[in-house]
Amino acid sequence: MTAVITDEKIPNNVNLAGDRRLQRALEEWQPHFLSWWQDMGPVGFQAKDVYLRTAVSVEADGWAHFDYVKMPDYRWGIFLEPKQAGRVHGFGDNQGQPVWDEVPGEFRNMLRRLVVTQGDTEPASVEQQRHLGSTAPSLYDLRNLFQVNVEEGRHLWAMVYLLHTYFGRDGREEAEELLKRRSGDSDKPRILGAFNEPTPHWLSFFMFTMFTDRDGKYQLAALAESGFDPLARTCRFMLTEEAHHMFVGETGVQRVVKRACELMKQAPNGDVRAQGGIDLPTIQKYLNLHFTLSLDLFGGEVSSNAADAFAAGLKGRYKEDRYDEHKLIGTHYTMDVLEDGKAVTKDIAMRNALNEVLRNEYIKDCQRGVDRWNKTIKDEGVDFELTLPSHKFHRQIGMWSTVCATPAGELIDRAEFEAKKHAWLPSAADETYIKSLMHAVTEPGKMASWVAPPAKGINGLPGEFQYVRLGA
Ligand code: BYC
Fold first, then answer.
1. Which residue out of 159, 297, 317 has the highest number of ligand 1 atoms within 8 Å of its CB and is therefore the one to mutate?
2. Which atom of ligand 1 is nearest to 315's Cα?
3. pLDDT in tens, 269-320
4. Of 162, 178, 192, 358, which is best to mutate to test ligand 1, by the most ligand atoms within 8 angstroms of its C-beta?
5. What DSSP line would sit under 138-198, residue for residue?
6. Is any ligand 1 atom within 6 A of the Cβ of residue 305?
7. Which atom of ligand 1 is nearest to the CA of 304?
8. Between these two residues, 57 and 180, which has the higher pLDDT value?
9. CA distance 13 to 158
10. Structural element, H or E, at residue 244
11. How many angstroms does the Cα of residue 273 sit away from the middle of ligand 1?
Protein backbone atom coordinates (compact mmCIF):
# COMPACT_ATOMS: atom_id res chain seq x y z
CA MET A 1 0.00 0.00 0.00
CA THR A 2 2.73 2.49 0.86
CA ALA A 3 4.98 1.72 -2.12
CA VAL A 4 4.67 4.36 -4.78
CA ILE A 5 3.90 3.15 -8.28
CA THR A 6 5.67 5.59 -10.56
CA ASP A 7 5.41 3.87 -13.93
CA GLU A 8 1.67 4.45 -14.32
CA LYS A 9 0.23 7.49 -16.09
CA ILE A 10 -0.54 8.90 -12.64
CA PRO A 11 2.10 7.98 -10.00
CA ASN A 12 0.32 6.92 -6.83
CA ASN A 13 0.39 4.89 -3.64
CA VAL A 14 -3.38 4.35 -3.54
CA ASN A 15 -3.56 1.31 -5.82
CA LEU A 16 -5.23 3.29 -8.56
CA ALA A 17 -4.86 0.35 -10.95
CA GLY A 18 -7.15 -1.62 -8.63
CA ASP A 19 -10.06 0.76 -9.27
CA ARG A 20 -10.49 1.04 -13.03
CA ARG A 21 -13.41 3.48 -12.84
CA LEU A 22 -11.51 5.91 -10.66
CA GLN A 23 -8.37 5.47 -12.72
CA ARG A 24 -10.29 6.27 -15.91
CA ALA A 25 -11.95 9.31 -14.34
CA LEU A 26 -8.60 10.72 -13.16
CA GLU A 27 -6.96 9.93 -16.49
CA GLU A 28 -9.73 11.95 -18.11
CA TRP A 29 -9.11 14.86 -15.74
CA GLN A 30 -5.32 14.72 -16.36
CA PRO A 31 -5.33 16.38 -19.84
CA HIS A 32 -7.63 19.11 -18.49
CA PHE A 33 -5.12 19.76 -15.74
CA LEU A 34 -2.24 19.84 -18.25
CA SER A 35 -4.12 22.22 -20.47
CA TRP A 36 -4.80 24.48 -17.45
CA TRP A 37 -1.06 24.27 -16.59
CA GLN A 38 -0.12 25.34 -20.13
CA ASP A 39 -2.64 28.22 -20.10
CA MET A 40 -2.29 29.44 -16.50
CA GLY A 41 1.00 27.98 -15.21
CA PRO A 42 4.41 29.69 -15.30
CA VAL A 43 4.79 31.87 -18.38
CA GLY A 44 7.80 31.32 -20.62
CA PHE A 45 9.80 28.45 -19.09
CA GLN A 46 7.78 25.37 -19.94
CA ALA A 47 10.43 23.99 -22.32
CA LYS A 48 13.39 24.55 -19.96
CA ASP A 49 15.11 21.97 -17.79
CA VAL A 50 14.53 22.85 -14.13
CA TYR A 51 16.29 21.14 -11.23
CA LEU A 52 13.22 19.96 -9.31
CA ARG A 53 12.29 17.77 -6.42
CA THR A 54 9.65 15.13 -7.16
CA ALA A 55 7.86 13.10 -4.48
CA VAL A 56 8.57 9.41 -5.05
CA SER A 57 7.76 7.88 -1.67
CA VAL A 58 5.95 8.71 1.54
CA GLU A 59 8.79 7.51 3.77
CA ALA A 60 10.28 10.31 5.87
CA ASP A 61 13.82 9.40 4.79
CA GLY A 62 14.27 9.82 1.07
CA TRP A 63 10.76 10.71 -0.07
CA ALA A 64 12.03 13.00 -2.80
CA HIS A 65 14.11 12.67 -5.94
CA PHE A 66 16.00 15.65 -7.45
CA ASP A 67 16.73 15.97 -11.15
CA TYR A 68 16.27 18.17 -14.19
CA VAL A 69 12.74 18.03 -15.57
CA LYS A 70 10.66 20.14 -17.92
CA MET A 71 7.66 21.35 -15.93
CA PRO A 72 4.92 19.88 -18.15
CA ASP A 73 6.68 16.48 -17.71
CA TYR A 74 6.61 16.74 -13.89
CA ARG A 75 5.20 13.53 -12.38
CA TRP A 76 2.22 14.93 -10.49
CA GLY A 77 1.02 12.05 -8.37
CA ILE A 78 -1.32 10.99 -5.59
CA PHE A 79 0.29 10.17 -2.25
CA LEU A 80 -1.39 9.45 1.05
CA GLU A 81 0.39 8.74 4.29
CA PRO A 82 0.04 5.08 5.28
CA LYS A 83 -3.12 4.18 7.18
CA GLN A 84 -2.71 3.88 10.95
CA ALA A 85 -4.48 0.72 12.14
CA GLY A 86 -7.08 1.39 14.81
CA ARG A 87 -7.05 5.20 14.42
CA VAL A 88 -9.96 6.86 16.23
CA HIS A 89 -11.52 10.34 16.15
CA GLY A 90 -9.25 12.57 18.20
CA PHE A 91 -11.83 15.30 18.95
CA GLY A 92 -15.43 16.40 18.61
CA ASP A 93 -18.69 14.58 19.26
CA ASN A 94 -17.34 11.24 18.00
CA GLN A 95 -14.09 11.31 19.97
CA GLY A 96 -12.82 7.77 20.54
CA GLN A 97 -14.94 6.22 17.75
CA PRO A 98 -13.17 4.63 14.75
CA VAL A 99 -12.34 7.14 12.01
CA TRP A 100 -14.32 7.10 8.75
CA ASP A 101 -13.00 5.64 5.51
CA GLU A 102 -16.08 6.82 3.66
CA VAL A 103 -17.83 10.20 3.73
CA PRO A 104 -20.50 10.27 6.45
CA GLY A 105 -23.77 11.20 4.68
CA GLU A 106 -24.84 13.89 7.14
CA PHE A 107 -21.55 15.80 6.78
CA ARG A 108 -21.09 15.36 3.04
CA ASN A 109 -21.69 19.01 2.09
CA MET A 110 -19.52 20.38 4.87
CA LEU A 111 -16.68 18.06 3.96
CA ARG A 112 -16.94 18.80 0.25
CA ARG A 113 -16.86 22.53 0.98
CA LEU A 114 -13.65 22.12 3.02
CA VAL A 115 -11.98 20.00 0.31
CA VAL A 116 -13.04 22.36 -2.48
CA THR A 117 -11.88 25.46 -0.55
CA GLN A 118 -8.52 23.84 0.16
CA GLY A 119 -8.22 22.64 -3.45
CA ASP A 120 -9.09 26.05 -4.89
CA THR A 121 -6.14 27.77 -3.23
CA GLU A 122 -3.59 25.53 -4.96
CA PRO A 123 -4.14 26.45 -8.63
CA ALA A 124 -4.94 30.01 -7.49
CA SER A 125 -1.42 30.51 -6.16
CA VAL A 126 0.11 29.17 -9.40
CA GLU A 127 -2.00 31.68 -11.33
CA GLN A 128 -0.95 34.51 -9.02
CA GLN A 129 2.74 33.72 -9.55
CA ARG A 130 2.73 32.92 -13.26
CA HIS A 131 4.55 36.05 -14.49
CA LEU A 132 7.36 36.06 -11.91
CA GLY A 133 9.79 33.88 -13.88
CA SER A 134 10.79 36.71 -16.22
CA THR A 135 12.10 38.85 -13.32
CA ALA A 136 13.71 36.24 -11.05
CA PRO A 137 16.61 37.71 -9.01
CA SER A 138 18.72 34.56 -9.58
CA LEU A 139 18.57 31.06 -11.06
CA TYR A 140 18.32 29.70 -7.50
CA ASP A 141 15.17 31.76 -6.90
CA LEU A 142 13.75 30.90 -10.33
CA ARG A 143 14.07 27.22 -9.50
CA ASN A 144 12.44 27.71 -6.10
CA LEU A 145 9.50 29.50 -7.69
CA PHE A 146 8.93 26.60 -10.07
CA GLN A 147 9.34 24.07 -7.25
CA VAL A 148 6.61 25.80 -5.31
CA ASN A 149 4.41 25.97 -8.43
CA VAL A 150 4.67 22.28 -9.37
CA GLU A 151 4.00 21.24 -5.77
CA GLU A 152 0.92 23.45 -5.57
CA GLY A 153 -0.14 21.61 -8.72
CA ARG A 154 0.36 18.31 -6.87
CA HIS A 155 -1.68 19.59 -3.95
CA LEU A 156 -4.49 20.26 -6.40
CA TRP A 157 -4.18 16.61 -7.50
CA ALA A 158 -4.44 15.57 -3.85
CA MET A 159 -7.81 17.32 -3.41
CA VAL A 160 -9.08 16.19 -6.81
CA TYR A 161 -8.31 12.60 -5.85
CA LEU A 162 -10.55 13.02 -2.79
CA LEU A 163 -13.32 14.65 -4.84
CA HIS A 164 -13.26 11.93 -7.52
CA THR A 165 -13.00 9.06 -5.08
CA TYR A 166 -15.51 10.05 -2.42
CA PHE A 167 -17.99 12.55 -3.86
CA GLY A 168 -19.35 10.92 -7.03
CA ARG A 169 -20.70 13.11 -9.79
CA ASP A 170 -20.65 16.38 -7.82
CA GLY A 171 -17.03 15.66 -6.86
CA ARG A 172 -16.13 15.31 -10.54
CA GLU A 173 -17.96 18.55 -11.33
CA GLU A 174 -16.15 20.36 -8.52
CA ALA A 175 -12.83 19.02 -9.89
CA GLU A 176 -13.63 20.60 -13.26
CA GLU A 177 -14.62 23.89 -11.58
CA LEU A 178 -11.25 23.99 -9.82
CA LEU A 179 -9.69 24.39 -13.27
CA LYS A 180 -12.21 27.00 -14.40
CA ARG A 181 -12.07 29.63 -11.67
CA ARG A 182 -9.31 32.21 -12.15
CA SER A 183 -7.40 34.24 -9.57
CA GLY A 184 -8.54 37.88 -9.69
CA ASP A 185 -11.24 37.29 -12.34
CA SER A 186 -14.34 39.34 -11.48
CA ASP A 187 -16.69 36.78 -13.11
CA LYS A 188 -15.09 33.57 -11.84
CA PRO A 189 -12.84 34.47 -8.91
CA ARG A 190 -11.04 32.04 -6.63
CA ILE A 191 -12.93 31.35 -3.40
CA LEU A 192 -10.81 33.06 -0.73
CA GLY A 193 -9.85 36.74 -0.77
CA ALA A 194 -6.05 36.53 -0.57
CA PHE A 195 -6.00 34.22 -3.59
CA ASN A 196 -7.47 36.92 -5.79
CA GLU A 197 -4.79 39.49 -4.91
CA PRO A 198 -1.94 39.94 -7.38
CA THR A 199 1.60 38.74 -6.65
CA PRO A 200 3.21 41.28 -8.98
CA HIS A 201 6.85 41.04 -7.92
CA TRP A 202 9.33 39.03 -5.89
CA LEU A 203 8.96 40.94 -2.63
CA SER A 204 5.27 39.98 -2.74
CA PHE A 205 6.20 36.40 -3.64
CA PHE A 206 8.53 36.08 -0.64
CA MET A 207 5.92 37.64 1.67
CA PHE A 208 3.22 35.38 0.20
CA THR A 209 5.24 32.20 0.73
CA MET A 210 6.13 33.37 4.26
CA PHE A 211 2.63 34.36 5.37
CA THR A 212 0.05 32.81 3.04
CA ASP A 213 1.75 29.44 2.68
CA ARG A 214 1.95 29.44 6.46
CA ASP A 215 -1.84 29.71 6.59
CA GLY A 216 -1.66 26.60 4.40
CA LYS A 217 0.44 24.90 7.07
CA TYR A 218 -2.11 25.65 9.80
CA GLN A 219 -5.20 24.80 7.72
CA LEU A 220 -3.61 21.55 6.49
CA ALA A 221 -2.56 20.68 10.04
CA ALA A 222 -6.15 21.23 11.24
CA LEU A 223 -7.44 19.01 8.40
CA ALA A 224 -4.69 16.44 9.11
CA GLU A 225 -6.53 15.82 12.41
CA SER A 226 -9.72 14.96 10.53
CA GLY A 227 -11.82 11.94 11.41
CA PHE A 228 -12.35 11.49 7.67
CA ASP A 229 -9.21 9.40 7.37
CA PRO A 230 -8.39 9.86 3.65
CA LEU A 231 -8.37 13.66 4.17
CA ALA A 232 -6.11 13.38 7.22
CA ARG A 233 -3.66 11.10 5.40
CA THR A 234 -3.59 13.33 2.31
CA CYS A 235 -2.95 16.51 4.32
CA ARG A 236 -0.18 14.90 6.36
CA PHE A 237 1.83 14.24 3.24
CA MET A 238 1.10 17.70 1.80
CA LEU A 239 2.63 19.23 4.94
CA THR A 240 5.94 17.54 4.09
CA GLU A 241 6.14 19.57 0.87
CA GLU A 242 4.75 22.76 2.41
CA ALA A 243 7.80 23.21 4.68
CA HIS A 244 10.02 24.12 1.71
CA HIS A 245 7.53 26.77 0.55
CA MET A 246 7.70 28.57 3.88
CA PHE A 247 11.50 28.21 3.80
CA VAL A 248 11.49 30.01 0.43
CA GLY A 249 9.43 32.83 1.95
CA GLU A 250 11.20 33.21 5.25
CA THR A 251 14.73 33.05 3.85
CA GLY A 252 13.68 35.15 0.84
CA VAL A 253 12.59 38.05 3.07
CA GLN A 254 15.59 37.47 5.34
CA ARG A 255 17.92 37.91 2.32
CA VAL A 256 16.15 41.16 1.32
CA VAL A 257 16.47 42.39 4.92
CA LYS A 258 20.18 41.46 5.02
CA ARG A 259 20.84 43.28 1.76
CA ALA A 260 19.02 46.38 3.05
CA CYS A 261 21.28 46.40 6.13
CA GLU A 262 24.44 45.95 4.03
CA LEU A 263 23.46 48.86 1.79
CA MET A 264 22.57 51.08 4.78
CA LYS A 265 26.09 50.61 6.06
CA GLN A 266 27.73 51.12 2.66
CA ALA A 267 26.31 54.54 1.79
CA PRO A 268 27.33 57.54 3.91
CA ASN A 269 23.69 58.66 4.29
CA GLY A 270 22.32 55.09 4.53
CA ASP A 271 20.05 55.58 1.51
CA VAL A 272 19.16 52.02 0.51
CA ARG A 273 16.99 52.94 -2.46
CA ALA A 274 19.75 55.06 -4.04
CA GLN A 275 21.80 51.84 -4.23
CA GLY A 276 19.09 49.64 -5.70
CA GLY A 277 17.93 47.99 -2.46
CA ILE A 278 14.63 47.74 -0.61
CA ASP A 279 14.72 49.79 2.60
CA LEU A 280 13.49 48.33 5.89
CA PRO A 281 10.46 50.68 6.27
CA THR A 282 9.24 49.52 2.85
CA ILE A 283 9.75 45.88 3.83
CA GLN A 284 7.62 46.61 6.94
CA LYS A 285 4.78 47.89 4.72
CA TYR A 286 4.75 44.71 2.60
CA LEU A 287 4.90 42.63 5.78
CA ASN A 288 1.83 44.54 7.04
CA LEU A 289 -0.01 43.89 3.78
CA HIS A 290 0.66 40.18 3.36
CA PHE A 291 0.31 39.29 7.03
CA THR A 292 -3.12 40.90 7.25
CA LEU A 293 -4.34 39.40 3.96
CA SER A 294 -3.33 36.02 5.39
CA LEU A 295 -5.06 36.64 8.75
CA ASP A 296 -8.31 36.91 6.78
CA LEU A 297 -7.85 33.32 5.55
CA PHE A 298 -8.78 31.96 8.99
CA GLY A 299 -12.40 33.16 8.58
CA GLY A 300 -14.57 35.01 11.08
CA GLU A 301 -13.54 35.26 14.76
CA VAL A 302 -16.79 33.75 15.97
CA SER A 303 -17.89 31.05 13.56
CA SER A 304 -20.62 28.44 13.67
CA ASN A 305 -19.02 26.82 10.59
CA ALA A 306 -15.87 26.19 12.62
CA ALA A 307 -17.94 24.88 15.55
CA ASP A 308 -19.86 22.49 13.24
CA ALA A 309 -16.68 21.20 11.55
CA PHE A 310 -15.11 20.51 14.95
CA ALA A 311 -18.23 18.86 16.38
CA ALA A 312 -18.44 16.62 13.31
CA GLY A 313 -14.80 15.62 13.72
CA LEU A 314 -13.85 17.00 10.29
CA LYS A 315 -11.45 19.83 11.23
CA GLY A 316 -9.50 19.94 14.49
CA ARG A 317 -7.05 22.30 16.11
CA TYR A 318 -3.34 22.62 15.32
CA LYS A 319 -1.68 19.55 16.88
CA GLU A 320 -4.83 18.42 18.66
CA ASP A 321 -2.89 15.97 20.86
CA ARG A 322 -1.12 18.83 22.67
CA TYR A 323 -4.46 19.68 24.28
CA ASP A 324 -5.91 17.84 27.29
CA GLU A 325 -9.57 18.19 26.38
CA HIS A 326 -11.02 17.38 22.96
CA LYS A 327 -14.78 17.83 23.16
CA LEU A 328 -14.86 21.52 24.07
CA ILE A 329 -18.35 21.58 25.53
CA GLY A 330 -18.88 24.23 28.18
CA THR A 331 -15.36 25.66 27.79
CA HIS A 332 -14.54 29.20 26.72
CA TYR A 333 -11.86 31.20 24.94
CA THR A 334 -10.97 34.67 26.17
CA MET A 335 -10.51 36.94 23.18
CA ASP A 336 -10.95 40.48 21.82
CA VAL A 337 -14.33 41.16 20.26
CA LEU A 338 -16.00 44.25 18.86
CA GLU A 339 -19.00 45.58 20.81
CA ASP A 340 -20.73 48.90 20.01
CA GLY A 341 -17.68 49.98 18.02
CA LYS A 342 -15.26 49.22 20.88
CA ALA A 343 -12.78 46.40 21.41
CA VAL A 344 -13.61 44.44 24.58
CA THR A 345 -12.30 41.19 26.02
CA LYS A 346 -14.92 38.43 26.31
CA ASP A 347 -15.28 34.72 26.90
CA ILE A 348 -16.59 33.03 23.75
CA ALA A 349 -17.84 29.43 23.62
CA MET A 350 -14.72 27.50 22.62
CA ARG A 351 -16.15 25.66 19.60
CA ASN A 352 -17.28 28.97 18.10
CA ALA A 353 -13.86 30.53 18.73
CA LEU A 354 -11.83 27.89 16.88
CA ASN A 355 -10.94 30.08 13.89
CA GLU A 356 -9.45 32.56 16.36
CA VAL A 357 -7.65 29.79 18.25
CA LEU A 358 -6.01 28.61 15.01
CA ARG A 359 -5.27 32.20 13.94
CA ASN A 360 -3.50 32.83 17.25
CA GLU A 361 -1.33 29.73 16.82
CA TYR A 362 -0.47 31.02 13.36
CA ILE A 363 0.39 34.49 14.68
CA LYS A 364 2.82 32.95 17.19
CA ASP A 365 4.53 31.05 14.37
CA CYS A 366 4.76 34.22 12.23
CA GLN A 367 6.28 36.04 15.23
CA ARG A 368 9.03 33.41 15.44
CA GLY A 369 9.90 34.13 11.78
CA VAL A 370 9.91 37.90 12.37
CA ASP A 371 12.18 37.37 15.39
CA ARG A 372 14.66 35.60 13.11
CA TRP A 373 14.57 38.55 10.67
CA ASN A 374 15.20 40.92 13.58
CA LYS A 375 18.17 38.81 14.61
CA THR A 376 19.62 39.29 11.10
CA ILE A 377 19.16 43.08 11.47
CA LYS A 378 20.82 43.01 14.88
CA ASP A 379 23.70 40.84 13.65
CA GLU A 380 24.28 43.43 10.93
CA GLY A 381 24.57 46.08 13.66
CA VAL A 382 21.52 48.04 12.48
CA ASP A 383 19.05 49.64 14.87
CA PHE A 384 15.61 48.72 13.47
CA GLU A 385 12.90 46.26 14.39
CA LEU A 386 10.25 44.69 12.17
CA THR A 387 6.91 44.04 13.88
CA LEU A 388 3.72 42.14 13.15
CA PRO A 389 0.73 44.49 13.06
CA SER A 390 -2.30 43.90 15.28
CA HIS A 391 -4.96 41.40 14.18
CA LYS A 392 -7.36 44.37 14.12
CA PHE A 393 -5.39 46.24 11.44
CA HIS A 394 -6.40 46.21 7.74
CA ARG A 395 -8.87 43.34 7.91
CA GLN A 396 -11.34 42.43 5.18
CA ILE A 397 -12.98 39.37 6.77
CA GLY A 398 -14.47 39.05 10.26
CA MET A 399 -15.53 41.61 12.86
CA TRP A 400 -12.47 43.88 12.51
CA SER A 401 -13.27 44.44 8.83
CA THR A 402 -16.05 46.80 9.92
CA VAL A 403 -13.68 49.21 11.70
CA CYS A 404 -10.32 50.88 11.04
CA ALA A 405 -7.28 50.39 13.26
CA THR A 406 -3.63 51.42 13.45
CA PRO A 407 -0.94 48.71 13.19
CA ALA A 408 -0.75 48.93 17.01
CA GLY A 409 -4.44 47.97 17.18
CA GLU A 410 -5.91 51.32 18.24
CA LEU A 411 -9.33 51.87 16.66
CA ILE A 412 -9.48 55.08 14.59
CA ASP A 413 -11.97 56.64 12.19
CA ARG A 414 -11.85 56.00 8.46
CA ALA A 415 -10.64 59.54 7.61
CA GLU A 416 -7.60 59.12 9.86
CA PHE A 417 -6.91 55.66 8.41
CA GLU A 418 -7.10 56.99 4.85
CA ALA A 419 -4.79 59.88 5.71
CA LYS A 420 -2.18 57.59 7.24
CA LYS A 421 -2.52 54.37 5.32
CA HIS A 422 0.48 54.89 3.06
CA ALA A 423 2.74 55.11 6.07
CA TRP A 424 1.54 51.59 6.92
CA LEU A 425 0.77 49.90 3.60
CA PRO A 426 2.55 50.07 0.22
CA SER A 427 1.66 53.15 -1.86
CA ALA A 428 1.53 53.29 -5.65
CA ALA A 429 4.98 54.94 -5.53
CA ASP A 430 6.40 52.08 -3.40
CA GLU A 431 4.94 49.59 -5.84
CA THR A 432 6.47 51.43 -8.82
CA TYR A 433 9.83 51.51 -7.09
CA ILE A 434 9.79 47.79 -6.24
CA LYS A 435 8.77 46.89 -9.78
CA SER A 436 11.59 49.06 -11.16
CA LEU A 437 14.07 46.73 -9.38
CA MET A 438 12.69 43.56 -10.92
CA HIS A 439 15.08 42.41 -13.66
CA ALA A 440 16.04 38.83 -14.36
CA VAL A 441 19.52 37.78 -13.28
CA THR A 442 20.40 34.63 -15.20
CA GLU A 443 24.12 34.06 -14.63
CA PRO A 444 24.59 31.13 -12.23
CA GLY A 445 25.48 32.31 -8.70
CA LYS A 446 24.74 35.99 -9.40
CA MET A 447 22.05 37.95 -7.49
CA ALA A 448 19.95 41.05 -8.16
CA SER A 449 21.04 44.24 -6.33
CA TRP A 450 18.23 44.06 -3.76
CA VAL A 451 18.74 40.57 -2.33
CA ALA A 452 21.62 38.80 -0.56
CA PRO A 453 22.69 35.33 -1.74
CA PRO A 454 21.24 32.29 0.04
CA ALA A 455 23.26 30.73 2.86
CA LYS A 456 23.39 27.45 0.93
CA GLY A 457 22.17 25.88 -2.30
CA ILE A 458 19.46 23.30 -2.92
CA ASN A 459 20.06 19.63 -2.10
CA GLY A 460 23.64 20.28 -0.98
CA LEU A 461 24.57 21.90 -4.31
CA PRO A 462 26.59 25.13 -4.51
CA GLY A 463 24.92 28.52 -5.05
CA GLU A 464 26.44 28.81 -8.54
CA PHE A 465 24.81 25.56 -9.72
CA GLN A 466 22.78 25.92 -12.94
CA TYR A 467 19.37 25.41 -11.31
CA VAL A 468 17.56 26.19 -14.56
CA ARG A 469 19.10 25.52 -17.98
CA LEU A 470 17.95 28.55 -19.86
CA GLY A 471 19.73 27.59 -23.06
CA ALA A 472 18.17 24.12 -23.12
N1 BYC B 1 -12.31 35.01 1.79
O2 BYC B 1 -17.70 31.01 9.40
P3 BYC B 1 -16.74 31.82 8.61
C4 BYC B 1 -3.14 27.03 1.31
C5 BYC B 1 -16.48 32.93 3.96
S6 BYC B 1 -4.01 28.17 2.26
C7 BYC B 1 -13.56 34.83 1.29
O8 BYC B 1 -16.33 33.13 9.14
P9 BYC B 1 -15.23 29.48 8.16
C10 BYC B 1 -2.20 27.59 0.34
C11 BYC B 1 -16.77 31.48 4.30
O12 BYC B 1 -16.42 30.62 3.21
C13 BYC B 1 -5.15 27.18 3.20
N14 BYC B 1 -14.58 34.27 1.97
O15 BYC B 1 -15.44 31.04 8.27
C16 BYC B 1 -1.40 28.69 0.67
C17 BYC B 1 -18.23 31.51 4.61
O18 BYC B 1 -18.94 31.55 3.38
P19 BYC B 1 -20.37 30.85 3.22
C20 BYC B 1 -6.47 26.91 2.48
C21 BYC B 1 -14.32 33.85 3.23
O22 BYC B 1 -16.15 28.91 7.16
C23 BYC B 1 -0.53 29.22 -0.29
C24 BYC B 1 -18.41 32.87 5.28
O25 BYC B 1 -17.29 33.67 4.86
N26 BYC B 1 -7.27 25.94 3.19
O27 BYC B 1 -3.31 25.87 1.44
O28 BYC B 1 -15.11 28.86 9.48
C29 BYC B 1 -0.45 28.64 -1.53
C30 BYC B 1 -18.43 32.76 6.78
O31 BYC B 1 -17.31 32.01 7.16
C32 BYC B 1 -13.06 33.98 3.82
C33 BYC B 1 -8.38 26.23 3.88
O34 BYC B 1 -8.81 27.35 3.94
C35 BYC B 1 -12.02 34.59 3.05
N36 BYC B 1 -10.78 34.77 3.55
O37 BYC B 1 -13.70 29.52 7.69
C38 BYC B 1 -1.25 27.56 -1.85
C39 BYC B 1 -9.04 25.08 4.59
N40 BYC B 1 -13.11 33.48 5.08
O41 BYC B 1 -20.14 29.37 3.48
C42 BYC B 1 -2.11 27.01 -0.91
C43 BYC B 1 -10.46 24.88 4.23
C44 BYC B 1 -14.37 33.06 5.27
O45 BYC B 1 -21.23 31.50 4.24
N46 BYC B 1 -11.30 26.05 4.54
N47 BYC B 1 -15.08 33.26 4.16
O48 BYC B 1 -20.73 31.14 1.78
C49 BYC B 1 -11.80 26.32 5.76
O50 BYC B 1 -11.50 25.65 6.73
C51 BYC B 1 -12.76 27.46 5.90
O52 BYC B 1 -13.49 27.53 4.73
C53 BYC B 1 -12.11 28.84 6.14
C54 BYC B 1 -13.26 29.81 6.49
C55 BYC B 1 -11.05 28.77 7.23
C56 BYC B 1 -11.46 29.41 4.91
1. 297
2. 50
3. 889 999 999 999 999 999 999 999 999 999 999 999 999 999 999 999 999 9
4. 192
5. SHHHHHHHHHHHHHHHHHHHHHHHHHHHHSHHHHHHHHHHHTT--TT-SSS--SSGGGGS-
6. yes
7. 2
8. 180
9. 12
10. helix 229-266
11. 38
152 Cβ inside 6 Å of ligand 1:
yes
Q: Return the amino acid letter for 100.
A: W
Nearest atom of ligand 1 to the alpha carbon of 114: 43
Edge-first strand order for the sheet with 64-70 is 64-70, 49-55, 468-469
Beta carbons within 8 Å of 49's beta carbon, 6+ residues apart: 68, 69, 70, 468, 469, 472
Ligand 1 atom at minimal distance to the Cα of residue 223: 39
User: How much is the pTM?
Assistant: 0.97
- The pLDDT value recorded for residue 1 is 43
- Backbone φ/ψ region at 32: left (φ over 0), alpha (ψ -120 to 50), beta: alpha
Tell whether ligand 1 has an atom less than 6 A from the beta carbon of residue 219. yes
